Amino acid sequence: AMNKSRLKYCIFFHYLLFFVMMTKLSADILDHLDIFILEIEELQIPQ
């Protein structure tokens, strides 16, 4: 019984870490995409 609860805790912790990493990565990716889109918009503006 002890091992099962420990396993559940381990799995939960891994999911938590995975979620944190994904949010950090997606924020980073969105940041890069945002810059990319801004650069494209600047290129398309006629002088």
Report on this model:
The protein is mainly α. The chain has a domain at 20-47. 91% of the residues lie in helices and 0% in strands. The chain has one helix and no strands. The protein has one helix spanning 2-44.
Based on the model shown, name its key terms.
1 helix; 47 residues; single chain; mainly alpha
- Which residue ranges are poorly predicted, with pLDDT under 50 across at least 5 consecutive positions? none
Largest sheet: none
Number of helices: 1
Secondary-structure-based class equals: mainly alpha
Approximate shape: rod-shaped
Oligomer: single chain
What is the CA-based Rg, rounded? Answer: 20 Å
Strand content: under 5%
Keywords: Endoplasmic reticulum, Membrane, Transmembrane, Transmembrane helix
Pfam families: Jagunal
Subcellular location: Endoplasmic reticulum membrane
GO biological process, one term: endoplasmic reticulum organization
Quick rundown:
The protein has 47 residues and is mainly α. The chain has a domain at 20-47. The protein is built from one helix and no strands.
Task: Describe the SSE topology.
Elements (H helix, E strand, L loop, with lengths): L1 H43 L3
